[in-house]
Design a protein that fits this description.
Elements lengths: L8 E4 L11 E7 L5 H12 L8 E4 L5 E3 L6 E5 L4 E6 L3 E7 L4 H10 L18 H4 L2 E2 L2 E2 L4 E8 L4 E5 L12 H4 L5 E11 L9 H4 L22 H15 L7 E5 L5 E2 L1 H10 L5 E3 L5 E3 L1 H7 L6 E2 L2 E3 L6 E4 L5 H19 L8 E3 L1
Parallel strand pairs: 2-5, 3-5, 4-20
Antiparallel strand pairs: 1-2, 6-7, 7-12, 8-9, 10-11, 10-12, 13-19, 14-16, 15-16, 17-18, 18-19
Length: 358
């Protein structure tokens, strides 16, 4: 692709968002980094008033998105591909992946090459480039714990930067890439430091007790027997758990966990625990307490319940699903109804994870 060939054209995006919402927008596909300087120049010209451009949205796998039928944004769909071992130290493999690589396939590839460390994050939808934006996490591991660096273009300054983890502003399901707005950072490559001194992470009960991780002579998840779970066994167990609990977006449109697990003060958590003894709580390093949003939603009566063409999933109350024919307005109406009922019952405010593209 030459620097002159980044062309935006009207395209159907229903298959490009995992909720399956109907949408059309001006879309260009980025599959060659050489076009980025020209893109930055065009954006700068628009900011200086030389041309009237619509705002830009960077699209990965569309798995964390609620999109309106005709968004005002132009869409840049990142399709950069490639995986390589960039460096090797005494303690780590430094693996680099292009932003358009499918996340799950990347994790699988790393294990096949003998580079463990990401297996707890198996089967998370989306792309490698989108993963740092949300600081994805599952089953006791968050992406920032394995990150080496992020190579991204700052579209405001027109400069490419390599950001270390401490420059990414990571927190629970958040990062500088998310807080600065969808049109500033264009992530092109992500590097991971995968440990040679690998140790399994089996903190979550669903994973620790999975029969596929049973050791000879030990209980499920135990490492006391003659066999210990391998990275591949943990990968397979995570895939099995997620497939049993979560609907496949190709079958039933969804964006995964629709709400963040709320983090509240210790005093408020203690008061709630007194009123609701079964409340699931997780003490955080800063003394605050994380609650299980799915439990709150279920107790508020929304598990398996529908509102028009959308509903909360029957097996996992945290997942909002499109039963067919939904628009963005249907999704947002349900999300607001769920938030209101959880607030009324528990006094806890839920925050949705997916970005709304209007």
């Amino acid at each position: 692709m030459s620097t002159q060939s980044l062309v935006f054209s009207d395209q159907d995006l229903q298959a490009r968002n995992t909720l399956g919402l109907p949408a059309r927008a001006a879309v260009a596909v980025l599959d060659d980094e050489s076009v980025i300087p020209a893109l930055c120049a065009a954006l700068a010209a628009g900011r200086n008033g030389q041309e009237a451009d619509d705002p830009l949205f960077i699209l990965g796998g569309g798995s964390n998105l609620v999109i309106e039928a005709r968004p005002r944004h132009r869409i840049l769909r990142v399709a950069l591909r490639g995986i390589r071992l960039r460096d090797e130290t005494a303690s780590h493999w430094v693996v680099e992946a292009a932003a358009g690589e499918p996340w799950h396939g990347f994790v699988d590839h790393c294990l096949a090459q003998g580079w463990p460390g990401l297996e707890n994050l198996a089967l998370i939808p989306g792309t490698v480039g989108a993963a740092p934006v949300q600081n994805i996490g599952a089953y006791g591991l968050e992406l920032d714990q394995r990150l080496h660096s992020v190579v991204a273009w700052d579209l405001r300054s027109g400069r490419e930067r390599t950001l270390r983890p401490d420059e990414c502003g990571f927190s629970y399901r958040d990062s500088v890439f998310k807080r600065d707005g969808a049109g500033r950072w264009l992530i092109v490559r992500v590097r991971f430091a995968l440990p040679k001194a690998w140790a399994s992470r089996l903190d979550y009960p669903d994973l620790r007790d999975h029969p596929g991780l049973r050791s000879e002579g030990g209980a499920p998840g135990s490492e006391s027997g003659s066999l210990r779970p391998t990275p591949r066994q943990i990968f397979d167990a995570v895939c099995d758990i997620r497939r049993r609990k979560l609907p496949d977006p190709a079958v039933l449109g969804n964006a995964g966990s629709f709400f963040k697990n709320p983090v509240i003060g210790a005093d408020q958590a203690a008061g709630l625990k007194q009123r609701f003894p079964d409340l699931r709580t997780y003490l955080q390093a800063d003394g605050r307490v994380k609650l299980a949003a799915g439990w709150l939603i279920e107790q508020a009566g929304w598990k398996g319940r529908r509102l028009g063409p959308v509903g909360m999933h029957a097996r996992q109350a945290l997942v909002l699903v499109n039963h067919g024919g939904a628009q963005a307005a249907d999704v947002l109406a349900l999300a607001q109804a769920v938030r209101a009922d959880v607030q009324a019952r528990f006094g806890v405010e839920l925050e949705q994870e997916p970005v709304v593209l209007d």
